[in-house]
Design a protein that fits this description.
The chain has a domain of 274 residues: Cytochrome p450. It is α+β, with helices and mostly antiparallel strands. The radius of gyration is 21 Å and the shape is globular. Helix content is 47%, strand content 10%. The protein starts with a helix and ends with a strand. It has a five-stranded mixed sheet with strand order 1-2-8-5-3, with helices on both faces. A three-stranded antiparallel sheet has the order 4-12-9. Strands 6-7 form a two-stranded antiparallel ribbon. Helix 6 packs across helix 17, helix 9 runs antiparallel to helix 10 and helix 13 crosses helix 15. The protein binds protoporphyrin IX containing FE (HEM).
Length: 399
């Protein structure tokens, strides 16, 4: 297999995609002030110990930069620690059940066909704008109960939040601060939009996830209106870009690996393992962040209290101590203990939905297009954020 990252000019900062090893498993970066962790075992240790490695990164970030985030993160599980985090997850799991997800299968298939009908007969299809962007957004919007027709509105907000190339660092430059302020402003717009819909559900309940979040109760307690809106916000954003990247990335892997493409076309029962390997090989959320709550030693390095840790799960997913031939896309890998959906108490809530959408959409795509090849004349482009690994556009030739 040609090195996919080199072939398409993927960012050099994602050195693991270029087959390079980290200089050290845990390394302090003077420039950003971050402690970077690249190993698989070390990543698991961090993600499975929320007492020592807190998710509330906004706390130190705000203190170091003299910023005030107000209640921007209230109800945002990705910033919460135990015990509140567990309570929120329990509330949400009342509304977002495995059955809620499984019941979506026919709708996902119908939407995929509808979107692909629009590009039927074309010899060249840009798959992100044709399918991979719209499908997950429509599904999550319908699930929440907000009009999918408003998606051009979210697209604008969400794209601006993700479409930046700023690197996370302890001390922010003026430009980075401005980017953060702009991101918060866009999140607030999304919050207000969702809050309006959630408030309406309090008076007029419907059969949707927003109503479920408004009504969910654990030990006699419910989510506050701000928490409902912020949580729905995370679902809407989380339900967007990530699944889009998963679909585009998987198609790019199949393009680079014609044997795997031929095999999965002939035997669709291989699709789930193709998807898992794609999550390992091109990990959409390549970095997670934590903050130390005490001095701690990891891989021989002592990290002081209150320091930001960059957990590079994209690199951990290529750790040669765990994965044989880590730089080969191999759908036969078994077991495949990748960390593409995280690990521990913050394990991705949307993983079953992302897997279902990926499987159904790819299955239908392979049925409808006997050939799908990346167009060398319109090479794929990638999201610019150093924390994401995913196609932004992918033009495919269909003959
Ligand atoms: C391929 C698609 C996806 C990938 C790669 C992905 C990845 C992740 C990862 C790595 C985490 C862990 C974050 C951490 O530990 O700090 C996470 C958490 C989360 N994801 Fe996903 N995700 C995907 C799809 C989705 C979808 C479709 C939804 C919504 C329906 C979603 C909602 C969430 C939420 C709410 C959390 C926070 C969980 C918590 O903090 O307890 N994700 N995701």
């Amino acid at each position: 297999m040609t090195n996919l990252a080199a072939k398409w000019g993927m960012d050099e900062s994602h050195f693991w995609l270029h087959g390079q090893e980290p200089q050290e498993i845990v390394r302090f970066d003077e420039q950003t002030g971050l402690w970077n962790v690249y190993g698989h075992a070390e990543t698991l240790r961090i993600l499975e110990d929320p007492t020592t490695f807190s998710s509330n990164t906004a706390r130190v970030f705000a203190a170091d930069n003299d910023m005030d985030f107000g209640d921007a993160f209230a109800g945002n599980p990705t910033q919460m620690d135990p015990p509140f985090h567990g309570k929120l997850r329990r509330l949400v799991s009342r509304a977002f059940t495995p059955k809620t997800v499984a019941d979506l299968a026919p709708r996902i298939a119908a939407l995929t066909h509808e979107l692909l009908d629009e590009v039927a007969g074309r010899d060249r299809v840009e798959i992100v704008s044709a399918l991979a962007y719209h499908l997950p957004v429509i599904v999550i919007a319908e699930l929440l109960g907000v009009p999918a027709g408003d998606r051009e509105l979210f697209k604008d907000w969400v794209e601006k939040i993700f479409d930046n190339d700023q690197q996370m660092s302890v001390k922010q430059t003026e430009e980075q601060r401005r980017e953060i302020e702009e991101g918060l402003e866009l999140s607030r717009k999304l919050h207000d939009y969702l809050r309006g819909h959630a408030d309406e559900r309090r008076h007029t309940p419907r059969q949707d996830l927003l109503t479920g979040l408004v009504e969910a109760e654990v030990d006699g307690e419910r989510l506050t209106p701000t928490e409902v809106a912020n949580f729905a916000n995370v679902l809407l954003i989380g339900g967007h870009v990530t699944t889009t990247m998963l679909m585009g990335n998987t198609l790019l892997c199949l393009d680079a690996e014609p044997d795997a493409d031929a095999r999965v076309r002939a035997d669709r029962s291989l699709l789930p393992s193709v998807i898992e390997e794609s999550l390992r090989y091109l990990t959409p959320f390549a970095s997670l962040y934590r903050v130390t709550t005490t001095d701690v030693e990891i891989a021989g390095q002592r990290i002081p209290k209150d320091r930001l840790v960059g957990v590079r799960i994209g690199a951990a997913n290529r750790d040669k101590r765990v994965f044989e031939r880590p730089h080969t896309f191999d759908p036969d890998r078994g077991p495949n203990p990748h960390i593409g959906f995280g690990r521990g108490i913050h394990f991705c809530i949307g993983a079953p939905l992302a897997r279902l959408e990926g499987r159904i959409a790819l299955d239908i795509l392979l049925d409808r297009f006997p050939v799908l090849r990346a167009d060398p004349e319109n090479p794929p482009t990638f999201l610019p954020s150093p924390d994401l690994t995913g196609v932004k556009t992918l033009t495919l030739l269909t003959s």
